[in-house]
Amino acid sequence: MPLWMLHRMAHTSLMAALIAVGALIHLPMGPVPVVLQNLFVLLAGLLLGSRHGLTSVLLYMLIGAMGFPVFAGGKGGIAHFLGPTGGYLLGFASAAFVTGLISERFPRSTVADSCAVLAGSLLIYAVGIPWLKAVTQMTWIKAITVGMLPFLPGDIIKAIAAVLLARPARLILARQIRGAAA
């Protein structure tokens, strides 16, 4: 196996691990906790692209489904996909893919990265809120009030952090891959 492929696998695994660490850093706020997971989900898309960003999230989800304590609050198990946060977990996969897709299609710039992160963030809510509503039998207003509004300020900060971290991280990854190809 070429060394650059090993680097790509390592980067994908590292992002899955960072997503798991992001889940352990949480503040309980009702049925949906405040976590750093989405920062690393968005960063996975920006840094690894659509395919490998999605793969890192799917790896994280597989590890959690197997029962390892990688979900918010150090929990694990397949039941989390059926609970109030299941939609957000599924939204992470689509967010990493779309963020990566936009990042691949447009020049690496702050504007393109910002659009990619915004689209990814909106996708997390687009999947998470209807799921939360369905599982808890909340009204739409209540689901939005509980499942989105309290998180917007923090998510804006995490989105900005993802965009700011992407540029230097890309340089490091490119150097590693170029070095491996040589």
Could you walk me through the main structural features you see in this protein, from its secondary elements to its overall organization?
This protein has 182 residues and is mainly α. It has a single domain, classed as Arp2/3 complex 21 kDa subunit ARPC3. It is built from six helices and two strands; from the N terminus they run αββααααα. The chain has helices at 3-24, 37-65, 86-105, 110-136, 140-147, 152-181, and strands at residues 26-27, 34-35. The chain has a two-stranded antiparallel sheet with strand order 1-2. The longest helix is centred in the C-terminal third of the chain and has 30 residues, at 152-181. The relative contact order is 0.15.
Major beta sheet, strand line-up: 1-2
**Name of the CATH class:** Mainly Alpha
Structural class: mainly alpha
Radius of gyration: 16 Å
DSSP helix count?
Answer: 6
Question: What is the N-to-C order of secondary-structure elements (H for helix, E for strand)?
Answer: HEEHHHHH
Percentage of β-strand residues? under 5%
Structural shape:
globular
Number of strands: 2
Give the termini separation. 14 Å
Query: What CATH architecture label applies?
Result: Orthogonal Bundle
Mean pLDDT: 92
Main beta sheet, described? 2 strands, antiparallel
Regions with pLDDT < 50 over 5+ consecutive residues?
none
Relative helix content:
over 70%
Summed up, the domain count is 1
The CATH topology name reads Arp2/3 complex 21 kDa subunit ARPC3
